[in-house]
Structures are given as structure tokens and as C-alpha cells.
Amino acid sequence: MTGEVLVLGGYGNFGKRICAGLNRHGVPVIIAGRDTTKAEKLAASLAHARGLAVDIRRDLAAILEREKPTVVVHTCGPFQGAGFDVARACIKAGVAYIDLADGRDFVRDFVELDAEARAAGVPLITGASTVPGLSSAVIEHYRPQFVSVESLDYAITPGQKTERGLATIRAILSYVGKPLQPFAGHPKAFGWQDMRSWTFPVFGKRWLANCDIPDLDLLPEAYGIRDIRFGAGVELGFMQWFLWLLSWPVRWGWPLNLPAASGLLLTVSRWFDVLGSDTGGMYMRLRGMGHDGQPLQKTWTIVAENGDGPNIPCIPAIVLARRIHEKGSGVEAGAYPCVGKISVEDYLAELESFAVKTFEAD
């Protein structure tokens, strides 16, 4: 193994931030993607990086055999409906694997690879992103104060001017208006419906709606949560409500292919950037029973300004790739989701140089 970290989609919205984050720690990276020019341009701006042309559908196995990276970080979404071909190629090559998958089925079913990964002696970690990486870290942070965590209500909302990628838009549109698989406390829910609002410190009220994420399956199982609800929202209220309106024809069964319009909707959304800000955040409200036998509630919020929000989903991949590169502890062989693998302290240490604040309340 070369000690390098191969980042697939390395010049994309999240990939470039992961490469920069690893570079800050002196970890050598290979910036991989189909566009050689983009890969090499980014590599030229970093001290320990090189660009490489890679098409994961055609030549990944040969690339892994030739380059022999220590870790592959897979950022090429969307993961909804995707298979495990990249992870299986890593098993065959004996290379550790990390992805930023947010596809509920993809992350939940990833354990199918566990026996193969253990036999090969390599770690395969899925969902190394805000959910379930940060969400589980916050639960772990407060868990000692609870006898039991019974409900979890949380959401993410980026600023309008924050950089956003096409894959993220396509992932959201894949379930807008569609029935979501039942989850704890909610036997029947639909994507981007059940509108509600939350008032954040720093930037105030944002509208939120149902999102389909791996946590809906993973966190109730891991922590015994009986009622979980996750939402997401854009900054501009009229855009949030417009997407809510689009969800109804899909729910009624009209033949709308919203993912096919991802590029158009992303372009149109950028027309309104002048009306928004570069500030976004995430809140988590945990409720349950304290050790004194009384109800207990804890609320944790993270706010990112100056367009620094997209760095937050990148932290688990950076931390885990560093651990594997440095042959540290806590990264065992097998295939598993990023639940309880990163601490809040890990996050805040990596985010020190960014305009990020956290808030705690009862």
C-alpha cells in the first residue's frame, strides 16, 4: 500500500473538501474523477496531492491494483438505488473503503458485505457523513445523562448561497412526494411533507419537511429510540413551499420524474441566491428519562456561517481516513455504518478553522 487516500469524485462539492482536510494533516491524496483537467487543477493547489482519471464504472479494479491506495473515499453520489460495486472492488483489492452515502436502503443493507470484508481483513464504512456520523456522535455525547433516549427530533438546513451539488439535489428529488418506509413512531410518512418550522440561534426560523435518510432505520436500532423524526429545508420559504407543492402530484400518482429535472431546478434555485445567506445549521433535540427518574431534554445545535456548512458532512471521512492511514485504533475490519465511530470532539477539532459555532440547551 502507498499510504495515499484515493478520493473518488475528489474535485466535487464534498470530495474537494475531504482532499483539503486530509492535506492539512499531511495525508497524501489522489484526486480521482473522470475529468483529468479538474483533478490535476485541484491537485496543483494542494501540497500532498496528485490528479488521476478514473471512471468507477469501467476501470476502478485496474486502478486499485496499479495505485495500491490505503483507503478509498467514495463521494460519487447519489447513492439512492446504487449498488456495492465500488466496495466490492475494494474488498478484492484489500483496500479500506469509506463512503458518504445518504441512501437509506444503501446504508442499511451495506452489512451484506460484512462477512466478505472480515475475511479480507478490511474495513468498509458507509454513511460517513452528517447522518449518521454526526447525529450518532451527538447522541453518544448526551447518552450518559439519560437512562433512555425515547425520542429524537432533528433537521438540517443550508444557507441559500451555500455551495450545493447536483447529486444532493437529485437524491432529495428521488423521494419527494413518495411514501417513506415506516420508521419509529411514524408508520406512514411522505417525502417533503409534514411541513414544520424551527427557530435556530444566529439565523432564526427555517421551514422543514420530511427527508428519507439512513438514520430512520439505524438510530432506533442502535439506541432504542421509539420516535424519530428528521427534516430538511432550504433557506427561502417560497422555495421550500414550492417543493412541498410539487410533492403532492407525486403522492397522487401523477407520472412526474422530478430527478430528471434536477439540473434545471438547481439552476433556477441559484437565480435566487441574492435573496439568501451563506448560513445554515443543524439541530438535534433528544428527549427521554434522566437518572433521577424525571423527563430529560437536551438540544444541540451547530451553525455554520461564511458558506462553511459543506465542510460538516466531510468530517467523518477525514477523521476515519486519517485513522486508517496512521494505522490508528477504532477502525475494525468488516462492513458497517458510521454509527458511534466519530465523537463530537473529533468534529469540533476538525472544524476549528471554520466559521462554525455550537449551542447547547435543555
From TrEMBL:
InterPro entries: NAD(P)-bd_dom_sf, Sacchrp_dh_NADP-bd. Residues 5-122 form the Saccharopine dehydrogenase NADP binding domain. It comes from the Bacteria. SUPFAM superfamilies: NAD(P)-binding Rossmann-fold domains. PANTHER family: CARBOXYNORSPERMIDINE SYNTHASE. This is Saccharopine dehydrogenase family protein. It comes from Asticcacaulis biprosthecium C19.
